[in-house]
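Section handout 9: paired folding examples.
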Amino acid sequence: MISAGDIRWCTKDAVFCIQETNIGMTADVGTFPRLQRYIPEGWVKEMAYTGRRIDAATAKDIGLVNEVFDTQEECLAHVMATAKEIASKSPLAVTGCKVLINYGRDHNTADTLDYIGVWNAAMFPPSHIQEAVAAMGEKREPDFPDLLPLRTTPM
């Protein structure tokens, strides 16, 4: 499940493994393609072939997790602070980042830059950009206007 997350944190007592190997299966829920994007292929293969557990420190060293915390309380406090920070940003900007990071992973730089240009031209309402700039200048949290509905009349 951790391989499906955008940002990954854990406590120091966490362990990670590809458990399917230990029960006579090959991982079949997207584990391999996701893990290969986050950690070196040699680590994916070692974890897959052996079913061996890796500890939190190793997970951080190989890039599987962003940070390791001593306690669950510290981890949750960090998670909630980060969620609050993300929620303070333009929802379209955050969505665009996710879409374009994922797109860029599988496409070359020129294609990704073209897509970013199209995304920015088509998706960003001027009101969100104006509010973000105004809030920054006034040293306050932005208050983004609601997005317009996709359709105003039923089809």
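Moving on to protein 2 of 2.
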Amino acid sequence: MSDTIKQFIKSKLLSLRKVFKGRSKVDNTVFSGRIKYRHNKFWSPADAEIIRNTIMDASYAPEKWKNVENWQRKLSNKYNSRQFASMHGCRVPELYWRGRDCNQIDFSSLPAHYVIRPTIGHSCKSVFLMKNGRNLMDGRSYPDAEIIKALNKALADDHYQEFLIEEFVRTEEAEYKIPNDYKFYMFNGELAFVQVINRFNRKKGFTSFYDKAWNLLENVNSIYKQAADLQVKPRCFDEMYAYAVSLSKTYEIFVRIDFYATDKGAVFGEFTPTPGLGAAFTPFGDKLLINYWDQFCKGMI
């Protein structure tokens, strides 16, 4: 091979490296950039799924929870997050069943209202909110065999996946309906805002945003349409807020913590470390989140 050809190939490889290096950069001055950076640091290591799916228990000492780098990844497993929340005194839905062998589910032992959700996932995928045989998330009725088929299909795509069958928590008015989500954006014990989602199904709903004093804020995120009416402050808001502060201080870094307002009080939902992968936040929302991050989680992932 001539020196000219070698030099040509070398220059092309150098150009390609520059292109891919540029593509890998994220803008650390915006919320989406920080979330994308965190997502990469959390989930690109080879042992990431092993860490997420190492089953934990509420009886374990804090040191056992925090024995790996970016230990918060363990809490992206929804079973582990239940255990962690219980460990810190939070109310969680009653657990009826957990596992992978869905053929072993005894549907006859379940109440008329129950929830099925995966231990890994987001955006309500593979969630069944069952009310007398009908899934409120899509409005369809499901025979037991069809539910098992759907669960087994999801399990075939991820050998770490498990399913939880839990209590269908009622609203503060004791109704069985798709509950409102109360999403607390927390920074090491400090609340930036609460997002309320009034969900109609898995993908559609209205949203609004409130500060700690329940004052309505500008739209922070544009994924859902802005609700036309002010939301009534939940009776158990103070309890949700206290839980969010306690959990957030232990979690340390930024996290979104979800709760439900029920006739039993505040009930923990889940932790979300990379909400929406940082997408669709408005300029107002981005500035607010970055300010909180820099003030209360400065230098943290």
